[in-house]
Fold this sequence. Notes:
Uridine Diphospho-n-acetylenolpyruvylglucosamine Reductase, domain 3, globular
Amino acid sequence: MNDGQSSRPYSGSMSNWLRRSMKFLTPAPTDRQHIIELLHEAEHHHLIDTGTVAMMEGALLVSELKVRDIMVPRSKMVFIEEDAKLADILPEVIESGHSRFPVLDDKHAKVLGILLAKDLLAIPIDTESSFDIKDIMRPPVFIPDSKRLNILLREFRASRNHLAIVLDEYGEIDGLVSIEDVIEQIVGEIDDEHDIEDEEFIRQHRGNRFTVKAHTPIDTFNEYFASKFDDATFDTIGGLATDEFGHVPGRAEKIEFGGFEFKVLRADKRRIHVLRVIRLAEGREPD
Length: 287
């Protein structure tokens, strides 16, 4: 019995010694990638579930993305003209399902304000003759396409604005971005009954910059870009890109092949979800 009692303090001392030693044997994370590797290791040991890891990874890497990587391009903006009548605005609002709309001048060159769909609820239907959209529109917020998403999210939260107009380097309208677009980079795609881009494989942003879903069929990619990637071995552009990387890449990893730069925008431990694609053959250097 004495031997058993005397072994307990010794066992406790050894345990404490091991814990202290591990602090020196296990180095502290030195960069984001190291933290992400630790998260994936925790996921592998079932300490953190996959969804939580994806969100934590998204929060860590959102600062590496810029507005131009996720914005809705000008060509796909849903907007209201400044001289639009109430009877024309209401069907547009209902059909689109959006809650905020840029108000453009008659030449579609300037954003004059932002219309909130909820502000239309207080307007009686029989006031068509006296309706002036300028009376209810909100002031627009303009941001450069080079702004990083972590900074934009902080500004959205501080100002309580949920929509910003994106300007290019010449001060021209380049597109728009919402707080939902930014949050989706962290938590993943937010399903919405009004989202109609589920079947959209490729979205052009500006010049030779595109967002491409990883499950885009290679023949669809080839048809869109007039490229000649072989689809005999892989069915999707994500599968081809993964093979070129030689491993399942993490977010923000880049590779160049076939005249394009591919950057991973969203991925998990098993596969790529979304890629940013830049056509290098057009002579524009990636940033």
